[in-house]
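Revision sheet: structure tokens.
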Amino acid sequence: MEERVNARTAELARAKEVAETANQAKSVFIAHMSHELRTPLNSILGFAQILLQNTDLNLERQNQVGTIYQSGKHLLTLINDILHLAKIEAGKLELQAKRFNFFTFVDRLLAIVRVNAEKKNLYLHYQPLSNLPEIVCCDETRLRQVLLNLLSNALKFTETGGVTMKIGYIEDFDAEISPQTQSSNGDDKTPTSGVVRFQIEDTGIGIEQQKLKEIFLPFQQSLQHNINSEGTGLGLTISENIIKEMGSKIEVKSSLGKGSTFWFDLELSAVNISDAQSQLISTHLGLPLEFEGKAPTILIVDDNQDSCSVLTNLFALFDFTVWEAHTGEVGITLAKEHKPDVIIFDYALPGISGAQMLAQIKEYINLVNTLTIGTSALNIAENKKVGDAFVIKPINLKKVLSLLTTHL
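Predicted:
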């Protein structure tokens, strides 16, 4: 008996060791993939932001670049969610409410999915049912993520007809179409002013009643074998967690062969336009720099040429003096020679690391009045301890400009 217990204990210990080794290997793989995916996105999002500053672009081109930028941001959000699946499943998402133009938000949202609708010859209709506010306060990125997922799913499972998105205050929805306006005992529910309903209707294949709960489980890519199961299979799981964090719930009703309707209710805080004048709510970076005396000098140290080019093109808009280095050793030489006002460096450099480079620069010149900004595709605690600020790739150019504005 004792021998069997010991054997079982040893077996469990081996299994635990194998699981820990596999988990460590997974962490290394995820860290590597995070870097590989974020690096090209840094160029895509960076140049899109710069192009949006080009006043020579006509409105059509601006909208096209805006669509590229929003699509890139959506891809980045998906990457972040896949890399942090455990966090998503725990429902511990960080919401960041901010002011944004709701009309522009909807236009860009539809522009992203309209391409897929046109490929399948499906209609994509938008019906605003209420006089909604122009400026609202909410987590714009997460709201876009949920709506893009619901719209993309609707188009994916629809072969004829199309998809309609309705947005309005819940009291403006017909009670027969929107059963959530009634309580569970059938009594009418008093409309709540300010609560906005987002509803996606399609004329697709529909879902069997017994499978309605399954669609919110992870990796349920397709409930129909004849439908292409593209994507991660995490879309509805992620969306459900996001909406729960926002204090609501995704509801669904469906008829097999006739289509499905998904909806959720959110309380959007309207912002008085006069109160929002100090914030530029548009596709542009919209953050002019003000400084006294000569233009500041900036040293960029990154082994990725595209990453350097993004920042160089950004600073060219303000006539800053910029030097580029692709190794830490060259970065040290340029820093000693020019004593720049700002040093933006990548932590992962060939040869000496960004942290080692910065430490050696401090031996030669005083960096008390120099702004040092570290960048990396890996969001790890060690990176944040080196330099005055840390910016994860893809680099948010508006954040970089904000740091420079504060420093200058």
